[in-house]
Amino acid sequence: MRIIEMNNVSKTYSNGVNALNNIDILIEKGEFVYVVGPSGAGKSTFIKMIYREELPSSGSIHIQGSDITKLKSKHVPYLRRKIGVVFQDFKLLPKLSVYENIAFALEVIEEPRHIIRKRVMEVLDIVKLKSKARFLPDELSGGEQQRVSIARAIVNDPRVLIADEPTGNLDPDTSWEVMETLETINRSGTTVIMATHNREIVNTIKRRVIVIESGRIVRDELRGSYSYER
Question: Which fold would CATH assign to domain 1-82+158-225?
């Protein structure tokens, strides 16, 4: 089942930078996809299009059959409940505990307290941090903070998880812990799209690889490898 479809998508920013050119792509439900390419190639724009942080200059983007480029602004928050996003710099609220950081995503949509507690503990179990529920972010390692960020991103049970350089600030051992978590989430049926510069991860955990260079998709391979023209 198609979960993401881009048709003839291009993006030119107001400063004249042409970030994407005529992108056509299909991503199926349950896939794990790496997005790689040199800095400035258009990876971040590609990722941001999926959760409508950016709109294309032309073309259409369908998420589960709906063209998100035509969504009214008031409906964008509802789209984002279906799409979890994990960033390189965690973006945790420093004065809230691990539990509170994750629960916040459900509180803003006014879920009942008993549902919040049940779901938060479920995702803490997935990321193996139930014992750290009452810790503050600065009491955790970098890898643990990233796993909290992942838990927060999946607490709404999204169909798609976007991971934008999720291991970029982590040491190699910790990076593998984060990848194990992402693989667990993917095995549950969630589509995972991960932008990365981590050659070792891409070449070791073989998945679909989309290579973007100069705003164009130059390679799209199942069980691909990390390589592109520098």
Answer: Rossmann fold (3.40.50)
